[in-house]
Amino acid sequence: MRIILLLISVGILNADALSELNEINASDGPFISGKKLAKLKPGIHYLEEKNTEQSELVIAVHGWKTKGFEWVYPLLELNKEENRIAFFRWKTTGCPNKATEQLLKIINRQLPNYDKIILMGHSYGGIILANLMQEDFSKQIDMHIIASGISGDPRLNSFCGYKAPTKTGVNVNGYQWMTQKNLDGAFKDLRTDTQIQNIEGVSAVRLPEEYKGNTLSHNRSISWLVDFLNSN
After folding, report:
1. For residue 207, which of 120, 136, 144, 175 sits 20 to 30 Å off, Cα-Cα?
2. Is 60 exceeded by the pLDDT of residue 166?
3. What is the pTM of this model?
4. Contacts by residues 14-18 (CB-CB < 8 Å, ≥ 24 positions apart)
5. Long-range CB contacts (< 8 A, 24+ apart) of 93-97?
6. How is residue 200 annotated by DSSP?
7. Burial (CB count <10 Å: 0-12, 13-18, 19+), residue 110
8. What is the CA radius of gyration of the chain?
């Protein structure tokens, strides 16, 4: 019994993880259900079983020291018959280089199984997508970079060898979704808005100041985007 309780406490998700997240979210809210995501081990986690109706794979890439709650609503809303939802867990306490290599291998391994793959990278997770944006792929890849300082900074550039993308690779559709700098705690104290990066063929969209009657903050940016995508 103690072993079973331990497994539950560290965030083990079952094969139908989205249903489990939905149940926990309905009863205890996103901060409790989000802990399930935050406590997953590094790597790719498919939150539902594969079936023949799923033509697209959606991979969520979290940001710095995620607590998971910011992804609960978006993941549940992204769940459609044609989508298979996955969560890419990675260690954010160092450079994103290793995680970038891991995700690239996962994408290339999964591409034959889907018509396209959709990547959604939030905050520091957007740097991983920026690292991949100039790669060439055999099928369509949509990359949504959300509230992320992809223009880089001295530490990221020097220690991690980061170079901001200037164009997209073959079969890559890139999207930049930028919060209001003065309202986003990740950027408001910076001299410049590091979300701004000119990428050939990619239009950057500035998000509104409010979302559902509240300030559109750093973490709410994901939910806003998912609602926007679902409305179109």
Report:
1. 136
2. yes
3. 0.93
4. 15/48, 15/49, 16/48, 16/49, 17/45, 17/47, 17/48, 18/47, 18/48, 18/75, 18/76, 18/79, 18/85
5. 93/65, 95/156, 95/159, 95/160, 95/161, 95/162, 96/124, 96/127, 96/128, 96/131, 96/160, 96/162, 97/131, 97/160, 97/161
6. B
7. middle
8. 17
pLDDT (tens digit, 9 = 90+) per residue, 73-131? Answer: 999 999 999 999 999 999 999 999 999 999 999 999 999 999 999 999 999 999 999 99
Looking at the chain, list the stretches that DSSP marks H as alpha helix, in order from N- to C-terminal side: 2-9, 17-28, 30-38, 69-78, 97-110, 124-132, 154-160, 220-230
* Full strand arrangement of the beta sheet holding 204-206: 43-46, 83-89, 56-61, 116-122, 140-146, 172-178, 204-206
Rounded Cα distance, 207 and 209, in Å = 7
CA distance 96 to 113: 26
CA distance 144 to 24: 27
